[in-house]
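Justification of resources, computational component.

The compute hours requested in this renewal are based largely on the per-chain cost of generating structure records like the one below. Each record pairs the submitted sequence with a full structure-token output. That output is archived, and it is also reused by downstream analysis tasks.
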Amino acid sequence: MRILLRSVLAIAVAGGAVLGWLFLHAQPARGGPYFASENGKLQVIAHRGGAGLRPENTLAAFEHAHAMGVDMLEMDVRATADGVLVVLHDATVDRTTDGHGRVDALALAELKALDAAYHWSADGGRSYPYRARGIRVPTLAEVFARFPRTRMVVEIKPAQPALARTLCALIRSARMASRVLVASMHPANLDAFRSACPEVVTSMGPEEARLFYIASLVRLSAVLSPDAQALQIPYALGERVLATAQLVGAAHARNLKLHVWTLNDEARMRRALALGVDGIMTDRPDLLLGLLGTRKR
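The structure output for this chain reads:
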């Protein structure tokens, strides 16, 4: 029993020493010009350009959301067979266009021949108001050129670190480094992007977000030194609400922005607003802008 107690005490002392060292040496997330204009105001983030209002990830959606006055446009990127970055969520074109097949198996010219609004409907499939109206899958370069002063959240969808480096080069050539926040569900993508483009802010990957969330629950987030500048999480997983006042406080203490996704009903939007989150991703930016009283005509 004495040996056991000594072992437990030794482990506790060693653990305390490690935590003490981490606390003394931990650094908050660095800031950046990307966030300079926020001034504490909640950021309205149009998820896929506002997928509940216009065909997702298209210039039509981005233009509509921008005209309403959203703060950020959120989008997904993949690469075509000939290596061009395009804005499209799925690995295939089947769900959103009149075509079939994998995005990475189609050349840009083949992708551009498809109707990107073919399956979009606001009334459960009774009508398809944007079919045959020339709405195409945009390249990321086209989005940058159309909205050079608009902030964006760009998520790298496939697990391809080389694509992260391609994205970095495009951001630099378009002079969008201060207007893009990069996200990905794949740690290797984020590692590659941060290494190639340290001047561009990023969101936490799933493992980073999970570690921060757990650390915040046990009041140990102060020992973490985040590599990202934003924590983007679902508002809830099933019945479990992840976004809490405690998490918001922990994020802000580490100089992190907390964005929640994807909220499309006013009740949850109001609850998130009351928590003090920094941004809400939504398919219905019209509803959120209405709550905030900032919607433009």
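The longest helix spans residues 2-25. Residues 10-19 have pLDDT under 50 and may be disordered.
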